[in-house]
Design brief:
The chain is an alpha/beta fold and 244 residues long. The protein contains ten helices and seven strands. The C terminus is likely disordered.
Length: 244
């Protein structure tokens, strides 16, 4: 064998590898938004985000949590919808659960993917916070539909639309209606309903207590004090001390 030929071949191979390493990588919107890995089930290391969404036409972001009663009521409807349309859509669960058991018990019942939960690291907490801000999430459950190829925004009214799709035909028609819409870059999107989160004052109060449990216990404490105060008002009027 010609040693000069082998040397030239090796040199060309090394040069090709160097050029590939230096070439700019194609921008992947899904990795940018969700991080390098998505989970397929609890307590796993995850799969590469870009390949996990391969072949899908639409991505549905499902902002939800196990402690949220409206979410627990909606999840079976979304699972039914997903099972009818999974050839075209992928759902990504964005969890507001605060510990591994709550997240794992809830996610284990879901047939789709999940972002790595916020409680696992500051980086994941920041990423999830940016997602919620980006899509103007005001409450949960919320469902955002994105074009799977570009990451462009399709609708934030998906929760309501999924609830209204009761037959297989209507579910598939809904997916087609999303595909026929003009998807726009997220920074140009007009958000109508905060991902389907309710504007109901009671839901907002519930969300406040759920996110800040100390508020609930503080209100409970003050309520007990108020009741005791009212009871003492009916006692001996000569007693000028109120028991707290």
């Amino acid at each position: 064998p010609n040693p000069n030929h082998n040397h030239a071949t090796n040199h060309n191979a090394i040069q090709t590898q160097q050029q590939q390493a230096m070439a700019p990588k194609a921008f992947d919107w899904s990795t940018e938004l969700f991080g390098p890995k998505l989970l397929t089930k609890p307590k796993t290391s995850g799969v590469p985000t870009a390949s996990a969404l391969g072949g899908k036409k639409l991505v549905l972001l499902y902002f939800s949590a196990s402690w949220c009663p409206p979410c627990k009521a909606f999840s079976p409807r979304l699972i039914d919808f997903y099972n009818s349309c999974s050839e075209d859509i992928e759902v990504i669960f964005v969890s507001s659960d605060r510990d591994e058991k709550s997240f794992g018990d809830y996610f284990s019942k879901m047939p789709w993917l999940s972002t790595i939960p916020a409680y696992t690291s500051n980086e994941n907490r920041d990423r999830q916070g940016k997602l919620a801000d980006m899509f103007k999430i005001q409450g949960i459950p919320s469902v955002i539909v994105l074009n799977a190829k570009t990451g462009h925004f399709v609708t934030d009214n998906a929760r309501t639309e999924v609830m209204q799709a009761n037959s297989d035909a209507s579910k598939k028609a809904l997916v087609q209606s999303w595909l026929s819409k003009e998807a726009v870059p997220v920074d140009q999107a007009v958000f109508a309903s905060g991902g389907g989160g309710s504007n109901n004052i009671f839901v907002k109060i519930f969300m406040m207590f759920a996110k800040k449990p100390q508020y609930f216990f503080g209100m409970l404490y003050l309520g007990k004090k108020l009741l005791r105060y009212l009871e003492n008002l009916g006692k001996d009027e000569n007693n000028d001390q109120i028991e707290l």
